[in-house]
Amino acid sequence: MKLHYKKEHISCTNYKSESYEGFGIGTLTSGSNFNSQTLSVKTNFLIFILEGEVEIIPKEGKIKRVIAQEFFFISALSTYEIQVRVPGRYIYMSFLYNDIKLCEKHMLESYLKEVRDLFLELMDAYLRAGVNCKHLHSIKEKELFIILRTSYSKQEIVNLFHEIIGTNMSFKAAVLLHVDRVNNREELAQAMGMSITDLARKFKVEFGESVYSWLLKQKNKKIIYRLAQPGASVKEIVYEFGFSSAASFNKYCKKNFGNSPRELVRQFKDKHIDNQNLKI
Q: How close are the terminal C-alpha atoms of the chain, in Å?
């Protein structure tokens, strides 16, 4: 699959540039391992091994070996290590919530397990081409849960997701779930169903900084990402982030990044600066 109009795709506000949810694709390197303790934010993972073989070593419980064409689920509540036994590739879906919606409307009992493989082939093509639209990821997530519900028995589904069924979402996961939908502390408090005072107190404990400071950093990361994209339009970014004028955006960039937006675009284009090195 070839992604046409890539510039338009990655400049869209719905492009999934940095997120703790959605689909991704990865490579299994022989001898490598991964420890859940290294995750800055723990999420639920549904992982499909396309090629290769891995071993799941939980802190508690039996070691499991997963081979090509098999999949497994790891909850955000568990502590584990994954060791690669045979190199290959995988597709994963990560999500923060626990209220799994296996089917929103009705059962499609005629689905076969082979549908899962067709789904993975298409997701593989999307991810390889760089199609990272948030809407697409949301739609495909719902489709995957429908496939699981209609391809496997209720007992198999319960066995797969038993670790998170009936559990409450963590505070940090809930914040990350809402961050793209709020603009300030008041909106976040409302989305979380908390008072501003309770939110501020809990937030300081979980994140180590104030709500305002953290939200500002997230906003700045998004702005820098957009400015760093090839062909970035300052006018479009001004509108996208709700600035009242180009002048106010110019003032904001100088205060937070030390340069005007046009100068930042030029520097990114000339590779004089790296957006990973900016202190945001």
A: 35
Q: Closest Cα to residue 68, out of 87, 49, 46?
A: 49
Say how far apart CA 32 and CA 275 lie, in whole Å. 28
Tokens of 80: 């584990």
Give the whole-angstrom CA distance, residue 73 versus residue 92.
10
> Does the global pTM surpass 0.85?
no
> What is the model's pLDDT at position 109?
37
Q: Which amino acid is present at 141?
A: E
Contact criterion met (CB below 8 Å) for 95 and 177: no
Separation CA 124–CA 129 (nearest Å):
9
| Residue keyed to tokens 């949301």 | 138
What does R_g of the chain's alpha carbons equal in angstroms?
21
Helices (H), the chain: 6-11, 114-129, 134-151, 154-161, 171-178, 185-192, 196-207, 211-227, 234-240, 246-257, 261-269
